[in-house]
From TrEMBL:
Cell compartment(s), UniProt: Membrane
Mode of membrane association: Multi-pass membrane protein
Membrane is among the record's keywords: yes
Keywords attached to this entry: Membrane, Transmembrane, Transmembrane helix
GO CC terms of this entry: ATP-binding cassette (ABC) transporter complex
Entry keyword Transmembrane helix: yes
Membrane spanning stretches: 30-49, 61-79, 100-126, 132-158, 170-194, 227-245
Main location: membrane
Protein name: Antibiotic transport system permease protein
GO MF, one example: ABC-type transporter activity
Coiled coil ranges: none
One Pfam family here: ABC2_membrane
Length: 250
């Protein structure tokens, strides 16, 4: 068996072990439940109440907000806590590549967000009595968006602190602006030219566009372009995270 295959298999096994550990310990932490469930729901209500937008527009917005916050909420809580207990230091000193550490940490958030995303979709379909036009696009959007933003959360958790609040504050400096520049609340077509240019830099723009396509068939960039940008953002977050955690290991 080739050496590279054994290395990949070992890394995947290590990543899954890390993800399982985080799933068992952190999924029901109050801080995670508040930031991943309550906060996005309140944000959605604040902007949805009083608007006459069709269900095919409201559900993608709710789903995009929920995926952003739920996916990026696990590791900014778990890693500072494990730094405090020195568990994370032992993980960094273990014979595991930083790629596996970042992937494993991100997988736990992605699985958490995907489950919440599916539940949110089911509730939205029943509550708004609407349907899905492109189920493959929806499932792809949920999976890629979850993994992309969970990796972003892991990247921010590389900030060397034992204080959860410091990481979450830093992360919210990015998450909150993303909501307002990505077409979730204000359609990109209604933005000024400079706002549209900024929106193109946000992965959430393409996540929302892909989910919107799944529900009502409208899209600005096309599902292939949306998917490609989300994969690119995921690779960038993964590479940046691996670099920062490698520095922590040295």
């Amino acid at each position: 068996m080739p050496g590279w295959f054994e290395e990949i298999s070992y890394d995947l096994g290590a990543a899954w072990a890390i993800a399982r550990k985080d799933m068992k310990i952190y999924y029901l932490k109050p801080s995670i439940l508040v930031s991943s469930l309550l906060f996005p729901f309140v944000m959605f209500l604040a902007f949805a109440i009083g608007r006459s937008a069709p269900p095919g527009t409201l559900i993608p917005g709710l789903l995009a907000i929920t995926l952003l916050f739920s996916a990026s909420s696990i590791e900014p809580v778990s890693i500072p806590i494990e730094r405090r207990t020195k568990t994370f230091d032992r993980l960094l000193s273990a014979p595991v590549s930083v790629r596996a550490i970042v992937l494993g940490a991100s997988l736990s958030g992605a699985i958490f967000a995907s489950a919440i995303g599916v539940a949110t979709t089911a509730i939205g379909l029943v509550a708004f009595r609407t349907g899905i036009l492109h189920i493959v696009a929806l499932l792809t959007g949920i999976a890629l968006t979850s993994l992309c933003f969970s990796t972003m959360g892991t990247l921010f958790a590389a900030y060397r602190t034992e204080n959860v609040g410091e990481v979450m504050s830093l992360l919210n400096l990015v998450r909150l602006p993303l909501l307002f520049i990505s077409g979730v609340f204000i359609p990109i077509a209604s933005m000024p030219a400079w706002g549209q240019s900024i929106a193109l830099l946000s992965p959430l723009t393409y996540a929302h566009d892909l989910i919107l396509f799944a529900f009502d068939g409208t899209t600005l960039f096309g599902p292939v372009a949306d998917t490609a940008v989300l994969v690119l953002a995921l690779i960038i977050f993964q590479a940046a995270g691996a670099l920062l955690y490698q520095r922590s290991r040295e």
